[in-house]
Amino acid sequence: MKKNIVKKFMYIASITATTVIFAACSTAKTTSKGNQATGSIIKIGENMELSGAAGGYGQQQKQGIQIAVDEINRQGGINVDGKKKKIKLIVKDNKTSNNTSASVAAQLANNDKVSAIVGPATTNAGTAQIPNITKAGVPSVSPSATDPSYTLMKNGKTQKYVFRACFQNNFQGNTAAKFVSNNLKAKRVAIFADNSSDYGTGLAKAFKKSFSGKVVDTQYFSEGDKDFNAVLTSFKSKKVDAIYVPGYYTEIGTIIKQAREAGIKVPIIGSDGMADPKLAKIAGNNNASKIYYTTPFSAKAASTSATAKGFMKEYKAKYGSEAPTFSALAYDSVYMIKAAIEKENSADSEKVAEGLAKLKDVKGVAGNITVDSKHDPEKPIVVEQLTNGKVSKTTEIK
In degrees rounded to 5, what are phi and psi of residue 370? Predict the structure, then answer.
């Protein structure tokens, strides 16, 4: 009798323990971080500045993203577990608003359950989404957030879910300083930087730190400014050899126009914010000579790459113009995500983040991409030269 009672007790205890174990596993599964990808599609979100102050850049990036998604889907999709899964792109406009960007990221991660996000375009909007994507365990790749601290936490450690396809400001500023010294042989330079965001001020700081000559003056302008004549006149009186203008084409086009009209013929050098055909339209083709800017993508330099040639052909067929830098970077961002998914053989968002951190020699329009320990891309950088509003020469800086 006692024997049977003991056996019965042990049996009940065994069943109870097993139930607890399975319950614990079930609980762990439902509370695990990240989105689990199921079904025959892979959801990728787009958190982009499609309107507002940076809408021009966002629209270009949207075009590059769409070309990449269409191309991948035409080829059957992304390979996971030996099966091709097509991409479902979910597009949302953050309106160049930090608050909206944070909200959009939360919607994409928590409601739409995306595996990864492309965007935002700007550092400020990108930074605003970081708390929400980190909490959800969903990685993002920004095509153009260039602030050095964008991928880093305050303690200097790398943000697990934050990646970019572009160079950070320090690298661009350092490269421009070397080019101005070594290639243009300029010794006296004035800096005229956009202080509306960390983009212009960060580039100015990096340039100043690396330039081997003398920075004779540093002045600032703001987004939306129209009259730059007073500052340009002061530069002219200081007999500068070149002017470094980190900022965006919207204001720099006018700066170039007013500088040339004031008789300032020295080289004007800037960054990838100038890499847009609208720059020459604003400045006027006749004024847009001896203009240089650092860029991660040059259609002229990339013409020998099969990947770049295919992208440029597709872009021109679809949109009727030459592919701009920001479209190329956005295109590469999608392919970085594809490579990460295939590397990990999983579209679960946590695994995608792990895959992005391990990327090596991924073929991109802007050169082969390897992601470093700070989630920055290692790839070539080019300086484009404009003559009469057209790209006349490219120089790869190593």
Answer: -125, 130
C-alpha to C-alpha distances, 367 to 78, 302, 326, 328, 357, nearest whole angstrom? 21, 8, 14, 10, 18
| Calpha distance 326→60 (Å, rounded) | 6
As averages over each run of 10 residues, the pLDDT of the chain (398 residues) reads 39 40 39 83 98 93 98 97 96 98 98 98 96 98 94 97 94 96 97 92 96 98 96 97 96 98 98 91 98 90 82 94 92 98 98 98 92 94 95 88
Query: What are the distances in angstroms from CA 190 to CA 217, 242, 274, 351?
Result: 5, 7, 18, 47
Q: CA separation (Å) from 239 to 30, 41, 185? A: 67, 61, 15
CA distance 92 to 352: 21
Kindly compute the dihedral angle of the four CA atoms of residues 235, 174, 368, 49, in this order, to the nearest 10 degrees: -60
Residue located via tokens 């940076």? 54
* CATH number for the domain that contains residue 104: 3.40.50.2300
Contact residues for 15 (Cβ-Cβ < 8 A; gap 6+): none
DSSP bridge partners of 90:
45
Which residue segment(s) compose the domain that 307 sits in? Answer: 41-167+303-379
* Pair (265, 191) in one structural domain: yes
Q: What whole-number distance in Å separates Cα of residue 286 and Cα of residue 45? A: 42
**Domain assignment present for 22:** no
- Distance, in Å, from the CA atom of 42 to the CA atom of 116, rounded to the nearest integer, reads 9
